[in-house]
Amino acid sequence: MVHPELEALYAQYGYAVYRRCRYLLGGDDDAWDAVQEVFLRADAGLSRFEGRASHRTWLDTIATRHCLNVLRARKVRTGRGLSGPEALDAPAAGDLADLYPEGDPAVVQALTVRSLLAHFDPQTQEAAVCYFVDEMSQEDVATRVGLSVPTLRKRLRAFLDRARGHLTRGGGLS
Amino acid sequence: MSETTPHTDHPGWDALLRHHQGDLPAAQAEKVSAHAAECALCASRLRTLNEGARKFHGERPFAVLESALRNRRDGLGGSESLARPTGAPRWLLPVVLGGFAAAAGAFVILHVPFADSPSAPAVSAKERLKSGVGLSFDVERGGQVVPGDPGAIYKAGDRIQLKYTSPARLNVVVVSLDGRGEVTVFHDDAGAGLRVEAGTGRAMPTSIVLDDAPGAERIVACFSESALTSAAVVAAARRALTAAEGDPRTVGALDLPCAQADLLLHKE
Q1: Does the model's ipTM exceed the 0.95 cut?
Q2: Per-residue pLDDT at B101
Q3: B176 contacts B92 by C-beta, under 8 angstroms
Q4: B97 and B28 both lie in a single domain
Q5: Are residues B33 and B164 in the same domain?
Q6: Which of B3, B10, B14 to mutate to test the interface with A (most CBs of A within 10 A)?
Protein backbone atom coordinates (compact mmCIF):
# COMPACT_ATOMS: atom_id res chain seq x y z
CA MET A 1 0.00 0.00 0.00
CA VAL A 2 1.52 3.28 -1.04
CA HIS A 3 0.84 6.76 0.28
CA PRO A 4 -2.43 8.10 -1.17
CA GLU A 5 -0.69 11.15 -2.65
CA LEU A 6 1.92 9.15 -4.50
CA GLU A 7 -0.13 8.47 -7.61
CA ALA A 8 -0.88 12.16 -8.14
CA LEU A 9 2.77 13.04 -7.62
CA TYR A 10 3.82 10.44 -10.13
CA ALA A 11 1.29 11.68 -12.65
CA GLN A 12 2.49 15.25 -12.33
CA TYR A 13 6.22 14.82 -11.76
CA GLY A 14 7.09 11.26 -12.78
CA TYR A 15 8.36 12.27 -16.18
CA ALA A 16 10.40 15.15 -14.76
CA VAL A 17 12.03 12.74 -12.32
CA TYR A 18 12.70 10.30 -15.15
CA ARG A 19 14.11 13.08 -17.27
CA ARG A 20 16.50 14.15 -14.51
CA CYS A 21 17.62 10.54 -13.92
CA ARG A 22 17.89 9.85 -17.62
CA TYR A 23 20.08 12.91 -18.11
CA LEU A 24 22.41 12.14 -15.23
CA LEU A 25 22.65 8.36 -15.61
CA GLY A 26 22.51 8.18 -19.37
CA GLY A 27 20.46 5.04 -19.92
CA ASP A 28 16.78 4.17 -19.83
CA ASP A 29 17.10 1.13 -17.56
CA ASP A 30 19.25 2.97 -15.03
CA ALA A 31 16.89 5.93 -15.16
CA TRP A 32 13.82 3.78 -14.51
CA ASP A 33 15.60 2.07 -11.63
CA ALA A 34 16.38 5.49 -10.19
CA VAL A 35 12.78 6.64 -10.66
CA GLN A 36 11.67 3.68 -8.56
CA GLU A 37 14.20 4.57 -5.88
CA VAL A 38 13.06 8.19 -5.84
CA PHE A 39 9.39 7.28 -5.47
CA LEU A 40 10.22 4.65 -2.90
CA ARG A 41 11.84 7.38 -0.83
CA ALA A 42 9.01 9.77 -1.57
CA ASP A 43 6.49 7.18 -0.42
CA ALA A 44 8.43 6.76 2.81
CA GLY A 45 8.82 10.50 3.31
CA LEU A 46 5.42 11.84 2.31
CA SER A 47 3.90 11.46 5.75
CA ARG A 48 6.69 13.67 7.12
CA PHE A 49 6.68 16.13 4.25
CA GLU A 50 6.33 19.60 5.76
CA GLY A 51 5.93 21.63 2.62
CA ARG A 52 8.97 23.85 3.17
CA ALA A 53 9.78 23.23 -0.48
CA SER A 54 7.36 22.31 -3.25
CA HIS A 55 6.78 18.66 -4.08
CA ARG A 56 8.51 19.30 -7.36
CA THR A 57 11.65 20.70 -5.71
CA TRP A 58 11.60 17.93 -3.13
CA LEU A 59 11.40 15.16 -5.73
CA ASP A 60 13.97 16.82 -7.95
CA THR A 61 16.38 17.11 -5.04
CA ILE A 62 15.92 13.45 -4.13
CA ALA A 63 16.42 12.42 -7.75
CA THR A 64 19.47 14.60 -8.33
CA ARG A 65 21.24 13.50 -5.15
CA HIS A 66 20.44 9.86 -5.75
CA CYS A 67 21.80 9.98 -9.29
CA LEU A 68 24.92 11.86 -8.29
CA ASN A 69 25.51 9.16 -5.68
CA VAL A 70 25.10 6.50 -8.34
CA LEU A 71 27.58 8.31 -10.56
CA ARG A 72 30.11 8.50 -7.72
CA ALA A 73 29.63 4.80 -7.08
CA ARG A 74 30.21 4.06 -10.74
CA LYS A 75 33.48 5.96 -10.71
CA VAL A 76 34.68 4.08 -7.65
CA ARG A 77 33.55 0.71 -8.96
CA THR A 78 35.34 1.17 -12.24
CA GLY A 79 38.46 2.32 -10.42
CA ARG A 80 38.59 5.63 -12.20
CA GLY A 81 39.94 8.61 -10.40
CA LEU A 82 37.76 11.54 -9.57
CA SER A 83 40.22 14.08 -10.83
CA GLY A 84 42.36 14.50 -13.86
CA PRO A 85 41.40 14.51 -17.50
CA GLU A 86 41.42 10.72 -17.69
CA ALA A 87 38.16 10.70 -15.74
CA LEU A 88 36.27 12.59 -18.39
CA ASP A 89 33.63 10.98 -20.50
CA ALA A 90 33.49 12.32 -23.99
CA PRO A 91 30.04 13.64 -24.83
CA ALA A 92 28.20 10.88 -26.63
CA ALA A 93 26.41 11.89 -29.76
CA GLY A 94 22.73 11.10 -29.61
CA ASP A 95 22.89 10.20 -25.93
CA LEU A 96 20.18 12.65 -25.00
CA ALA A 97 18.31 12.60 -28.28
CA ASP A 98 15.00 11.71 -26.63
CA LEU A 99 15.28 14.56 -24.14
CA TYR A 100 16.13 17.37 -26.52
CA PRO A 101 14.58 18.42 -29.82
CA GLU A 102 16.76 17.96 -32.83
CA GLY A 103 19.21 20.79 -33.25
CA ASP A 104 18.83 22.16 -29.73
CA PRO A 105 22.17 23.78 -28.93
CA ALA A 106 21.69 23.11 -25.21
CA VAL A 107 22.31 19.40 -25.65
CA VAL A 108 26.06 19.88 -26.12
CA GLN A 109 26.27 21.95 -22.98
CA ALA A 110 24.24 19.39 -21.06
CA LEU A 111 26.56 16.59 -22.14
CA THR A 112 29.64 18.62 -21.32
CA VAL A 113 28.38 19.46 -17.83
CA ARG A 114 27.61 15.82 -17.17
CA SER A 115 31.08 14.76 -18.22
CA LEU A 116 32.64 17.20 -15.75
CA LEU A 117 30.50 16.57 -12.68
CA ALA A 118 32.85 14.05 -11.12
CA HIS A 119 35.41 16.77 -10.54
CA PHE A 120 33.26 18.73 -8.14
CA ASP A 121 31.71 18.47 -4.71
CA PRO A 122 28.04 17.44 -4.48
CA GLN A 123 26.76 20.96 -3.87
CA THR A 124 28.59 22.34 -6.90
CA GLN A 125 27.41 19.38 -8.98
CA GLU A 126 23.80 20.13 -8.10
CA ALA A 127 24.29 23.84 -8.72
CA ALA A 128 25.92 23.22 -12.11
CA VAL A 129 23.08 20.99 -13.23
CA CYS A 130 20.44 23.49 -12.11
CA TYR A 131 22.19 26.42 -13.78
CA PHE A 132 23.74 25.06 -16.94
CA VAL A 133 21.28 22.26 -17.74
CA ASP A 134 17.97 23.34 -16.23
CA GLU A 135 18.75 26.94 -17.11
CA MET A 136 17.48 28.22 -13.80
CA SER A 137 18.35 31.72 -12.65
CA GLN A 138 21.20 32.17 -10.20
CA GLU A 139 18.74 33.28 -7.54
CA ASP A 140 16.67 30.13 -7.94
CA VAL A 141 19.75 27.90 -7.98
CA ALA A 142 21.12 29.57 -4.85
CA THR A 143 17.84 28.93 -3.05
CA ARG A 144 17.73 25.34 -4.27
CA VAL A 145 21.23 24.38 -3.15
CA GLY A 146 21.40 26.54 -0.04
CA LEU A 147 24.11 28.99 -1.05
CA SER A 148 24.21 32.76 -1.17
CA VAL A 149 24.17 34.20 -4.68
CA PRO A 150 27.77 35.49 -4.42
CA THR A 151 28.99 32.10 -3.24
CA LEU A 152 27.06 30.40 -6.00
CA ARG A 153 28.67 32.70 -8.55
CA LYS A 154 32.11 31.74 -7.25
CA ARG A 155 31.25 28.06 -7.52
CA LEU A 156 29.93 28.43 -11.05
CA ARG A 157 32.99 30.42 -12.03
CA ALA A 158 35.21 27.70 -10.60
CA PHE A 159 33.19 25.13 -12.57
CA LEU A 160 33.70 27.09 -15.77
CA ASP A 161 37.41 27.62 -15.09
CA ARG A 162 37.98 23.96 -14.48
CA ALA A 163 35.83 23.02 -17.45
CA ARG A 164 37.96 25.17 -19.70
CA GLY A 165 41.07 23.55 -18.32
CA HIS A 166 39.82 20.02 -18.85
CA LEU A 167 37.89 20.11 -22.04
CA THR A 168 39.84 18.47 -24.78
CA ARG A 169 37.13 18.00 -27.30
CA GLY A 170 33.57 18.93 -28.12
CA GLY A 171 31.15 21.33 -26.58
CA GLY A 172 31.55 24.32 -24.41
CA LEU A 173 29.84 26.22 -21.71
CA SER A 174 28.31 29.64 -22.03
CA MET B 1 10.96 32.96 -9.92
CA SER B 2 12.68 33.84 -13.12
CA GLU B 3 11.03 32.62 -16.29
CA THR B 4 13.86 33.29 -18.66
CA THR B 5 17.15 31.50 -18.96
CA PRO B 6 20.15 33.44 -17.65
CA HIS B 7 21.82 32.90 -21.00
CA THR B 8 19.16 34.11 -23.43
CA ASP B 9 15.73 35.64 -23.60
CA HIS B 10 14.13 32.23 -23.98
CA PRO B 11 12.38 30.56 -21.07
CA GLY B 12 14.83 28.02 -19.70
CA TRP B 13 14.19 24.29 -19.51
CA ASP B 14 13.15 24.70 -15.90
CA ALA B 15 10.45 27.22 -16.77
CA LEU B 16 9.24 25.10 -19.68
CA LEU B 17 9.07 22.04 -17.49
CA ARG B 18 7.10 23.92 -14.84
CA HIS B 19 4.81 25.18 -17.58
CA HIS B 20 4.35 21.63 -18.81
CA GLN B 21 3.57 20.47 -15.26
CA GLY B 22 1.12 23.29 -14.65
CA ASP B 23 3.30 24.70 -11.87
CA LEU B 24 3.81 28.20 -13.24
CA PRO B 25 1.70 31.08 -11.93
CA ALA B 26 -0.88 32.13 -14.48
CA ALA B 27 0.91 35.32 -15.53
CA GLN B 28 4.19 33.48 -16.16
CA ALA B 29 2.41 30.65 -17.91
CA GLU B 30 0.81 33.15 -20.28
CA LYS B 31 4.20 34.71 -20.99
CA VAL B 32 5.76 31.34 -21.73
CA SER B 33 2.86 30.35 -23.97
CA ALA B 34 3.08 33.64 -25.85
CA HIS B 35 6.83 33.24 -26.28
CA ALA B 36 6.53 29.65 -27.47
CA ALA B 37 3.95 30.71 -30.04
CA GLU B 38 6.60 32.92 -31.64
CA CYS B 39 9.71 30.83 -30.98
CA ALA B 40 10.45 27.65 -32.89
CA LEU B 41 13.07 26.44 -30.39
CA CYS B 42 10.83 26.78 -27.34
CA ALA B 43 7.85 25.36 -29.19
CA SER B 44 9.90 22.31 -30.12
CA ARG B 45 11.13 21.99 -26.53
CA LEU B 46 7.55 22.02 -25.27
CA ARG B 47 6.59 19.43 -27.88
CA THR B 48 9.51 17.28 -26.76
CA LEU B 49 8.35 17.53 -23.16
CA ASN B 50 4.75 16.68 -24.05
CA GLU B 51 5.71 13.76 -26.24
CA GLY B 52 8.27 12.48 -23.74
CA ALA B 53 5.77 12.59 -20.90
CA ARG B 54 3.09 10.86 -22.98
CA LYS B 55 5.49 8.10 -23.96
CA PHE B 56 6.82 7.71 -20.42
CA HIS B 57 3.41 7.43 -18.78
CA GLY B 58 2.15 5.24 -21.60
CA GLU B 59 4.92 2.72 -21.05
CA ARG B 60 5.06 3.10 -17.30
CA PRO B 61 1.67 3.96 -15.85
CA PHE B 62 1.34 4.25 -12.10
CA ALA B 63 0.33 0.61 -11.78
CA VAL B 64 3.74 -0.38 -13.16
CA LEU B 65 5.53 1.81 -10.64
CA GLU B 66 3.34 0.55 -7.81
CA SER B 67 4.12 -3.03 -8.76
CA ALA B 68 7.83 -2.26 -8.94
CA LEU B 69 7.77 -0.65 -5.51
CA ARG B 70 5.91 -3.63 -4.11
CA ASN B 71 8.51 -5.99 -5.55
CA ARG B 72 11.32 -3.96 -4.06
CA ARG B 73 9.68 -4.01 -0.68
CA ASP B 74 8.95 -7.73 -0.90
CA GLY B 75 12.53 -8.43 -1.82
CA LEU B 76 13.77 -6.46 1.13
CA GLY B 77 11.18 -8.02 3.41
CA GLY B 78 12.62 -11.47 2.80
CA SER B 79 16.04 -10.62 4.14
CA GLU B 80 14.63 -8.51 6.95
CA SER B 81 12.56 -11.35 8.28
CA LEU B 82 15.60 -13.60 8.41
CA ALA B 83 18.10 -11.59 10.30
CA ARG B 84 17.22 -8.01 10.96
CA PRO B 85 15.49 -6.29 13.82
CA THR B 86 12.35 -4.32 13.18
CA GLY B 87 13.32 -0.86 12.05
CA ALA B 88 16.92 -1.76 11.32
CA PRO B 89 18.53 -0.10 8.33
CA ARG B 90 17.96 -2.32 5.33
CA TRP B 91 21.58 -2.80 4.47
CA LEU B 92 23.04 -3.47 7.87
CA LEU B 93 22.85 -6.83 9.56
CA PRO B 94 24.26 -6.96 13.08
CA VAL B 95 25.78 -10.37 13.61
CA VAL B 96 27.78 -10.21 16.82
CA LEU B 97 25.95 -8.86 19.79
CA GLY B 98 28.18 -9.91 22.69
CA GLY B 99 26.49 -9.08 25.96
CA PHE B 100 23.91 -6.69 24.62
CA ALA B 101 20.94 -8.87 25.35
CA ALA B 102 18.41 -6.07 25.15
CA ALA B 103 19.44 -5.09 21.68
CA ALA B 104 19.65 -8.70 20.62
CA GLY B 105 16.08 -9.55 21.41
CA ALA B 106 14.75 -9.20 17.91
CA PHE B 107 17.79 -10.54 16.07
CA VAL B 108 18.74 -13.91 14.83
CA ILE B 109 22.19 -13.97 16.36
CA LEU B 110 25.01 -15.44 14.37
CA HIS B 111 28.26 -15.32 16.30
CA VAL B 112 30.83 -14.57 13.63
CA PRO B 113 34.06 -13.21 15.09
CA PHE B 114 35.62 -10.26 13.37
CA ALA B 115 38.81 -12.14 12.67
CA ASP B 116 42.30 -10.71 12.44
CA SER B 117 41.33 -7.19 13.36
CA PRO B 118 44.43 -5.12 13.98
CA SER B 119 44.99 -4.90 17.72
CA ALA B 120 45.61 -1.16 17.92
CA PRO B 121 45.04 0.27 14.47
CA ALA B 122 45.49 3.90 13.69
CA VAL B 123 42.30 5.90 13.55
CA SER B 124 41.30 6.68 10.00
CA ALA B 125 42.34 10.10 8.81
CA LYS B 126 38.84 10.54 7.45
CA GLU B 127 37.06 10.15 10.74
CA ARG B 128 35.47 13.23 12.17
CA LEU B 129 36.69 14.11 15.60
CA LYS B 130 34.84 16.41 17.90
CA SER B 131 35.79 17.06 21.50
CA GLY B 132 38.33 14.28 21.35
CA VAL B 133 35.86 11.56 20.42
CA GLY B 134 35.95 9.70 17.15
CA LEU B 135 34.44 6.90 15.15
CA SER B 136 36.17 4.78 12.55
CA PHE B 137 35.82 1.28 11.24
CA ASP B 138 37.59 -1.69 9.77
CA VAL B 139 36.13 -3.68 6.96
CA GLU B 140 36.56 -7.36 6.25
CA ARG B 141 36.23 -8.48 2.69
CA GLY B 142 37.38 -11.80 1.30
CA GLY B 143 39.09 -12.76 4.55
CA GLN B 144 41.17 -9.60 4.76
CA VAL B 145 40.65 -6.86 7.30
CA VAL B 146 41.61 -3.36 6.29
CA PRO B 147 40.92 0.11 7.69
CA GLY B 148 37.61 1.38 6.38
CA ASP B 149 37.35 4.35 4.09
CA PRO B 150 34.13 6.37 4.45
CA GLY B 151 34.61 7.58 0.89
CA ALA B 152 34.58 4.07 -0.54
CA ILE B 153 31.61 2.13 -1.79
CA TYR B 154 30.89 -1.07 0.06
CA LYS B 155 28.93 -4.07 -1.02
CA ALA B 156 26.84 -6.92 0.32
CA GLY B 157 28.86 -9.33 2.44
CA ASP B 158 31.40 -6.78 3.66
CA ARG B 159 31.74 -6.92 7.43
CA ILE B 160 32.09 -3.64 9.28
CA GLN B 161 33.66 -3.32 12.71
CA LEU B 162 33.01 0.05 14.32
CA LYS B 163 35.75 1.50 16.50
CA TYR B 164 35.57 4.46 18.84
CA THR B 165 38.01 6.96 20.24
CA SER B 166 37.20 8.44 23.62
CA PRO B 167 39.32 10.72 25.82
CA ALA B 168 37.73 9.41 29.02
CA ARG B 169 35.38 6.82 30.42
CA LEU B 170 32.08 7.86 28.88
CA ASN B 171 28.62 6.62 27.98
CA VAL B 172 27.97 6.11 24.29
CA VAL B 173 24.92 5.43 22.18
CA VAL B 174 25.51 4.60 18.52
CA VAL B 175 22.66 5.00 16.04
CA SER B 176 22.33 4.76 12.31
CA LEU B 177 20.25 7.05 10.07
CA ASP B 178 19.29 5.76 6.68
CA GLY B 179 17.75 7.16 3.55
CA ARG B 180 14.37 5.71 4.37
CA GLY B 181 14.12 7.90 7.41
CA GLU B 182 14.80 5.06 9.80
CA VAL B 183 16.88 5.48 12.93
CA THR B 184 18.23 2.37 14.59
CA VAL B 185 20.21 1.86 17.76
CA PHE B 186 23.36 -0.16 17.11
CA HIS B 187 25.11 0.15 20.43
CA ASP B 188 23.69 0.96 23.83
CA ASP B 189 23.09 -0.77 27.12
CA ALA B 190 19.47 -1.62 27.70
CA GLY B 191 18.22 1.77 26.56
CA ALA B 192 21.00 3.76 28.21
CA GLY B 193 24.49 4.71 27.16
CA LEU B 194 27.05 1.95 26.92
CA ARG B 195 30.00 2.53 29.24
CA VAL B 196 33.23 2.69 27.27
CA GLU B 197 36.80 3.15 28.44
CA ALA B 198 39.19 5.82 27.25
CA GLY B 199 41.23 4.82 24.25
CA THR B 200 41.88 5.20 20.57
CA GLY B 201 40.50 2.91 17.90
CA ARG B 202 38.81 0.56 20.36
CA ALA B 203 36.47 -1.96 18.80
CA MET B 204 32.80 -1.97 19.64
CA PRO B 205 31.54 -5.40 20.69
CA THR B 206 29.40 -5.83 17.59
CA SER B 207 30.32 -6.17 13.95
CA ILE B 208 27.92 -5.63 11.09
CA VAL B 209 27.51 -7.42 7.78
CA LEU B 210 26.21 -5.39 4.89
CA ASP B 211 23.18 -6.81 3.16
CA ASP B 212 22.26 -6.24 -0.49
CA ALA B 213 20.28 -3.02 -0.22
CA PRO B 214 21.98 0.11 -1.59
CA GLY B 215 22.12 3.58 -0.12
CA ALA B 216 23.86 6.02 2.16
CA GLU B 217 23.87 5.48 5.89
CA ARG B 218 25.09 7.84 8.59
CA ILE B 219 26.31 6.28 11.81
CA VAL B 220 26.45 8.65 14.76
CA ALA B 221 28.06 7.99 18.14
CA CYS B 222 26.96 10.20 21.04
CA PHE B 223 29.37 10.34 23.98
CA SER B 224 28.35 11.77 27.33
CA GLU B 225 29.49 11.79 30.93
CA SER B 226 25.91 11.97 32.14
CA ALA B 227 23.11 9.49 31.68
CA LEU B 228 22.20 9.43 28.01
CA THR B 229 19.16 7.46 26.92
CA SER B 230 18.88 5.74 23.59
CA ALA B 231 15.38 7.18 23.21
CA ALA B 232 16.72 10.74 23.43
CA VAL B 233 19.38 10.00 20.83
CA VAL B 234 16.87 8.35 18.50
CA ALA B 235 14.48 11.30 18.82
CA ALA B 236 17.27 13.79 18.07
CA ALA B 237 18.43 11.71 15.13
CA ARG B 238 14.92 11.66 13.68
CA ARG B 239 14.68 15.43 14.01
CA ALA B 240 18.04 15.84 12.28
CA LEU B 241 17.06 13.47 9.51
CA THR B 242 13.78 15.28 8.96
CA ALA B 243 15.63 18.62 8.86
CA ALA B 244 17.89 17.12 6.21
CA GLU B 245 14.83 16.09 4.17
CA GLY B 246 15.58 12.46 4.82
CA ASP B 247 19.05 12.57 3.28
CA PRO B 248 21.63 11.00 5.61
CA ARG B 249 24.41 12.68 3.68
CA THR B 250 23.37 16.15 4.75
CA VAL B 251 22.38 15.45 8.34
CA GLY B 252 23.92 17.92 10.79
CA ALA B 253 24.93 17.40 14.40
CA LEU B 254 22.23 16.07 16.72
CA ASP B 255 20.83 18.68 19.09
CA LEU B 256 21.99 16.92 22.21
CA PRO B 257 24.41 18.00 24.93
CA CYS B 258 27.01 15.41 24.04
CA ALA B 259 30.19 14.98 22.03
CA GLN B 260 29.49 13.39 18.67
CA ALA B 261 31.42 11.51 16.04
CA ASP B 262 29.96 10.18 12.85
CA LEU B 263 30.65 8.23 9.70
CA LEU B 264 28.90 8.25 6.36
CA LEU B 265 28.95 4.93 4.55
CA HIS B 266 27.89 4.24 0.99
CA LYS B 267 26.79 0.93 -0.42
CA GLU B 268 26.33 0.03 -4.01
Answers
A1: no
A2: 27
A3: yes
A4: no
A5: no
A6: B14
